[in-house]
Design goal:
This protein has one domain. It contains 4 helices and no strands. The longest helix has 20 residues. By secondary structure, it is an all-alpha fold. Helix 1 runs antiparallel to helix 2. Pfam families: YgaP-like_TM. This is Inner membrane protein YgaP-like transmembrane domain-containing protein. Keywords: Membrane, Transmembrane, Transmembrane helix.
């Protein structure tokens, strides 16, 4: 299980999870919708906490930036190029 949820995605999910749980507790839309909002809120908060989304895994996508290996990082360095600022 490789993490596939990025930081911005986690923040949005945590926010929406809290909102859905609040709607569930307040029971504004009735008991049926309260249960639905509660389940959605818990699921969204769990995904945000774990950093892994099963749907993203099925779709083979990720919102997380990949970490570069040492070789890739070294390849990205610019050496011998004069500064453009003077």
């Amino acid at each position: 299980m490789q993490k596939n949820v990025g930081t911005a995605d986690k923040i949005l999910r945590a926010t929406f999870g809290i909102v859905f749980l609040a709607l569930s507790v307040l029971k504004i839309f009735g008991s049926f919708w309260s249960i639905i909002f509660g389940l959605l809120g818990v699921e969204i908060l769990v995904v945000a906490a774990l950093g892994y989304s099963p749907l993203y895994g099925i779709l083979d996508t990720s919102t997380r930036k990949p970490k570069l290996t040492v070789e890739e990082e070294v390849a990205n360095w610019t050496t011998g190029v004069p500064d453009s600022e003077k």
